[in-house]
């Protein structure tokens, strides 16, 4: 690399050629010679490099903390056909770690600014931005990519993406057509913790197979907060939701600001009083701020590590030169540094990837509400607003649908009816649609006595 007179290029300027001597030497070292860690079937050649530079098409979901890192890592590894999807605009609080953005970019779409930055900085790289929700793009869009890599902070979006890739799979007589598989590399971070995983949809554990690893969103019922607090968090929530608006300690209409120490101090003191009243321990200033802000701080270095791991996996899959991660890596540097890789297993009855309708065991006298609660509360399903339909007496019938007000109103009485009264029978198929996936899920009603 250093044996050329060409100066190292850090800025792509106009008029500069897109290639220069030794430009990809760092990547070629992995592809044009064998080594102890290469894939057993790997044959060194110049073809993989050409594939990266000219053909391979990558989709990056998210242009935030992980997305910025991913785009930079991929572009510097030789990937040139990259699309990026992000629905957010740039906020001042992003600038400490989302290094493709500058103060002048505040308010502009992250996808657009990130793409512009990479394209002007890395000659020959073509990042195409999509300032959109992932749900606004369809299967023809997703099908065009060789590999999809996610840098998201939302489980819902991950599950939807997972569902989309599962819906693209083609089966011939129950046998999966390997050419229909688009690998999904998923990165996630939370403070000093992170994970990277490789998902081969239909072959290895999918996002929903391991849903139980993600704790459901904590939302305390109002009655608990108001009358039966058990946890220190309940006390803070009580002060935040009820006492603050009632007592308006900092004047009328002053919104509780999690970054204002005086506000937090006030909430902390009142929470302590509330906790003492119910003999609850554990209320601290830190906990108070954590509950009020409801955010997990983003750590730039964690994003960098996880994005690098994900980009490495994209590189391994795209070139077939190395054996990919199998299949779930966890990283933690809260205390020292810890990393561990394990093989997440497919769940035989995964509602997203198992291809068999799940059995729902209910008594004929159970109410539809109970079934609905199960779909949202079960740790392995965690649906958000399921819409349930069934074929009853040859007719397609919507049993309950929440997302359209008029239909919700019309179907609400069904919730208090029993399954039997709704005309449902043992073995009945129920079709359930939910925001967690683009596909309709099939369940089979199995009556218990
Ligand atoms: Zn699955």
Automatic annotation (TrEMBL):
Gene3D superfamilies for this protein: NAD(P)-binding Rossmann-like Domain, Ubiquitin activating enzymes (Uba3). Chain: B, domain 2, Ubiquitin-like 2 activating enzyme e1b. Chain: B, domain 3
Gene Ontology terms for molecular function: ATP binding; NEDD8 activating enzyme activity
GO CC term (a single one): protein-containing complex
SUPFAM superfamilies listed in its UniProt record: Activating enzymes of the ubiquitin-like proteins
Occurrences of domain E2 binding (ranges): 360-448
Enzyme class: ligase
GO BP, sorted A to Z: protein neddylation
Residues forming coiled coils: none
Domain of life (superkingdom): Eukaryota
Keywords: ATP-binding, Ligase, Nucleotide-binding, Ubl conjugation pathway
Catalytic residues (positions): 223 (glycyl thioester intermediate)
Protein name: NEDD8-activating enzyme E1 catalytic subunit
Source organism (scientific name): Gymnodraco acuticeps (Antarctic dragonfish)
Gene name of the record: uba3
């Amino acid at each position: 690399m250093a044996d050329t007179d060409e100066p190292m290029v850090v800025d792509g300027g106009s008029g500069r050629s897109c290639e220069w001597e030794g430009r990809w030497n760092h990547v070629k070292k992995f592809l044009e010679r064998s080594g102890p860690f290469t894939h057993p079937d790997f044959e060194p050649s110049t073809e993989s490099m050409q594939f990266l530079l000219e053909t391979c098409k990558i989709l990056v979901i998210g242009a935030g903390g992980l997305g910025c890192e991913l785009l930079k890592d991929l572009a510097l590894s030789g990937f040139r056909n990259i699309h990026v999807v992000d629905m957010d605009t740039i906020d001042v609080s992003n600038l400490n770690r989302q290094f493709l953005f500058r103060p002048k970019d505040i308010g502009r779409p992250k996808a657009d600014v990130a793409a512009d930055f990479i394209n002007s900085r890395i000659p020959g790289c073509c990042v195409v931005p999509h300032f959109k929700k992932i749900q606004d793009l369809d299967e023809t869009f997703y099908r065009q990519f060789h590999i999809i890599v996610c840098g998201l902070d939302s489980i819902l979006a991950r599950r939807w993406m997972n569902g989309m890739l599962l819906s693209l799979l083609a089966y011939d007589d129950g046998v999966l057509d390997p050419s229909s598989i688009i690998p999904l590399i998923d990165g996630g971070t939370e403070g000093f913790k992170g994970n990277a995983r490789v998902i081969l949809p239909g072959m290895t554990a999918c996002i929903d197979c391991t849903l139980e690893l993600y704790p459901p969103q904590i939302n305390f019922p109002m009655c608990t907060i108001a009358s039966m607090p058990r946890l220190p968090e309940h006390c803070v929530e009580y002060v935040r939701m009820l006492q603050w608006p009632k007592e308006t300690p900092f004047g009328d209409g002053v919104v509780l600001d999690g970054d204002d120490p005086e506000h937090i101090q006030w909430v902390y003191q009142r929470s302590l009083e509330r906790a003492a009243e119910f003999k609850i321990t554990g209320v601290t200033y830190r906990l108070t701020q954590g509950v009020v802000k409801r955010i997990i701080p983003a750590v730039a270095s964690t994003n960098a590590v996880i994005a690098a791991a994900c980009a490495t996996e994209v590189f391994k899959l795209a070139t077939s030169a190395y054996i990919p991660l199998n299949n779930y890596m966890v990283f933690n540097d809260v205390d020292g540094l810890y990393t561990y890789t394990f093989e997440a297993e497919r769940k035989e009855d995964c509602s997203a990837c198992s291809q068999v309708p799940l059995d729902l065991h209910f008594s004929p006298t159970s109410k539809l509400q109970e079934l609905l609660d199960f779909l949202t509360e079960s740790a392995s399903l965690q649906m958000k607003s399921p819409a349930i339909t069934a074929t009853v007496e040859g007719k397609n019938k919507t049993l309950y649908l929440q997302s359209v007000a008029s239909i919700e109103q019309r179907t609400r009485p069904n919730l208090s009816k029993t399954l039997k009264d709704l005309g449902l029978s043992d073995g009945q198929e129920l079709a359930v649609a939910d925001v967690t996936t683009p596909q309709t899920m099939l369940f089979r009603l199995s009556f218990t006595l």
